[in-house]
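Now for one record.
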Amino acid sequence: MFRRVLARFRIEFVTVLNPTSIQISPADRLRGILPDPEIAAISPIIEEIEELKLARNAAILAHNYMTPDIFHGVSDLRGDSLALARMAAETEADVIVVAGVHFMAETAKIANEEKTVLIPDTQAGCSLADAITGADVRLLKERYPGVPVVTYVNTSAEVKAESDICCTSGNAVQVVESLGVDRVIFLPDQYLGRWVATQTEIEIILWEGSCEVHERFTAEELRGYRNLNPGIQIIAHPECPPDVLQEADFVGSTAGMIDWVKHERPRQVVMVTECSMSDNVAAESPQTEFLRPCNLCPHMKRINLENIRDALRDMKNEVTIAPGIAGRAREAVERMLAVQV
């Protein structure tokens, strides 16, 4: 069921579903993205990772916030958190290495009970996912009996298991409105929830969680970019505070921002999200100059070439989820995927 509904989501695959069958040198993948001396320095470890992928029949899934050496150098499949889960469900690989944070690896495991899912660093967490627990959700349901719980995918499997339905930043409004109710509990991102509330008449009961990267941006900072660069376009993720979103020319999910740049082809743009995403999109959008307000996610940056290699070499840091939790979490994700967007 999970794989069947996942097929409704449009995703651009960066290579075939069994990517290890194609061999491209690190220099070819990274030329024009990183300086030649840096490519030469990291080529040996990239080649080692490629050999391990072949030996393990493994695929590396990289989130858009990974650094270019990972995103362009060793990843087989790329995307946002839910896109990675879809790709994981469809790849022919036996071993999946998630170059991202822990909740993403959990979601990949939810989609792939039979596969081995590894995360290079078990401490790669998320301030948003850490903002709420399953016990918190149970207390909220006691306080608001009968009110459905809509949970952002940037949460732990335990929290998803306590929820009625999940959502992404790209489909949150549609998911909320699909329930046919007057109010919902929306977890855990207060800023995404506030943005959803501006797009619907449904009452949104918020939890006070936030992303430590996106909440650092300010409207004053963005006005400064406009003053120095007349005509610049500002695009922002809805996890940002409301005053930041008011300054933006476009508000959208990670995938939405990428599509906007590809289709609009602005001369200059500020992408108000994690800094490495600008680096990765810039490599594929040479017509656009990216001004980078460089807020880095410290959790994403725990993932590097060395611990990717180590995870594959030693088959360590396997992600496991208790069957009862995995099954209930899967139901919440499947309900989301059944919503037409």
Observations:
- The chain has 16 helices and twelve strands.
- The mean pLDDT is 89.
